[in-house]
Amino acid sequence: MGGQPIKGVEKLISKVEERFLGFVKLEGLRYLEGLLNVDLGSEKRKGRPFIGWYKNGCMFLVFLTTKRRAYKVFVNGCNKQELCQWIDEESYVFYDYRHRGYFVYKVKEDQLKWKEQIVFCGFCHPEATSAIDVLRSYYEGEDSCSH
Prior knowledge:
With 147 residues, the chain is mainly beta. It has one domain (9-138). The protein is built from 2 helices and 8 strands; from the N terminus they run H-E-H-E-E-E-E-E-E-E. Strands 1, 2, 3, 4, 5, 6, 7 and 8 form an 8-stranded mixed β-sheet that branches. Strand 2 and strand 3 form a beta hairpin. The longest helix has 11 residues, at 26-36.
């Protein structure tokens, strides 16, 4: 599950608001946990899948899990490269026990030091990810992003 990091993040940023499937490698998860003050799980895995997009100089992340929860995301509506086949077709939005809810996590572009830890899997069809449209945003620190 090594995968290739996102190449040409600038190209993704130019596709404003186009959602994509990806996963964050373990090293990037630990950085994000500290940055966002969140526990992204302790299961033995090498990464956490997410639906993401860029807007207004920020990256928005909705982490996914296989645990059946309120918000189902149809990952089969996303293009998946070979290295992402391990991500379940029926995924659910990750529940944040620390902050008690389901969130869209926001990270400013200047905090994307961990972007080499992101693996891009493919773009998603809007209907496939419509369940995340109702989620609240969560951000640690001064908020200069809006989705």
